[in-house]
Amino acid sequence: MTTKGWVRTSLLNGILAGGLFWMGCSTTPPESGKAESSVGPAGEKKFKRTDRIDRVWLADGVDFTGYDTLLIEEAKVDPSVKPKDEKEADRLSLMQGTLSRALAESIESRRIFKTVTRKDSELTAAAKGLKLQTTVTKFSRGSTATRIGVGFGAGMPYVRVVVVAIEPGTNKEVFECELDETADWFGAGYSGSETLQRGAGMELADDVANYMARVSKHEPIKYK
Questions:
Q1: What's the rounded Cα separation, in Å, for the pair 159 and 120?
Q2: Count of alpha carbons within 13 angstroms of residue 214, beta-carbon side
Q3: Nearest to 130 by CA among 74, 169, 179
Q4: Adjacent-strand bridge partners of 173
Q5: Where does the pLDDT of residue 141 fall: very low under 50, low under 70, confident under 90, or very high at 90 and above?
Q6: What's the first-to-final CA gap in the chain, in angstroms?
Q7: Residue 45 near residue 38, CB atoms below 8 Å
């Protein structure tokens, strides 16, 4: 290669390298290191979704580590939920108790809070606490006859809830999620609806506790 050709080639390579450098810079988001806000421009909550939770929201900066006590309130039922008969009303009451106990046990086992309680007095004495409120928004006790006669997941107990965490002193909401659970039909066989229902409530509680634990440990969460 001649000296003139070598110079021309070197110049072209330099220009190309510089162009690629600036293209790379221009594609870098200017705020890539900043956390996305959890509220929209009008102050509304910006919900996300995970593989186990349909809708979830966290207030900016909340990771649950700033609270020492969590009060699990008794699960409530939305007025729109109308049991079809007395038996379903009894099973709905059973689900309320299952959810409250399972949430307390699942969250306590993750060691997110120093104290997890179902007693109001323990929250009142806490230096910094939260209360967790659960509302059943949809419910079906399932049907043993349908499970046996139809199979393939038909007639399984089902529950859908909204869970909200609130600072008691300010009534400020810091966490909200909505999720549902259908009892596991695989291997259910001739299991009674009551047994399957308890299992569904415990699975749902475990999903909430697992999410809170991952947030508190700053573990990566895949949102959809």
A1: 26
A2: 13
A3: 169
A4: 166
A5: confident
A6: 56
A7: yes
Model pLDDT for residues 56-100, shown as the tens digit of each residue: 999 999 999 999 999 999 999 999 999 999 999 999 999 999 999
Angle between helical axes of 86-109 and 193-216 (0-180°, round to 10)? 30
Structural domain 55-216, CATH architecture:
3-Layer(aba) Sandwich (3.40)
Chain CA centroid to CA 34, Å:
22
**Alpha-carbon gap, residue 150 to 155, rounded angstroms:** 8
Q: Which residues, at least 6 apart from 23, have a Cβ–Cβ distance to it below 8 Å?
A: none
**DSSP states of 123-142:** HHT-SSEEEEEEEEEEEE--
pLDDT in tens, 36-59: 678 777 678 999 999 999 999 999
Residue found by looking up tokens 């573990």 in the block: 219
Interior angle at CA 100, CA 95 and CA 105, nearest 5 = 120
> Tokens 């509302």 map to which residue?
135
- The residues that bridge with 161 in the sheet, in sequence order, are 136, 179
Residue 55, sorted as left (phi over 0), alpha (psi -120 to 50) or beta, turns out to be beta
Residue type, 180: D
pTM: 0.78
* Both structure tokens of 224: 């959809």
Phi then psi dihedrals of residue 112, to 5 deg: -80, -40
Beta-sheet pairing, 172-182 with 55-58: antiparallel
**Arithmetic mean of pLDDT, 169-198:** 79
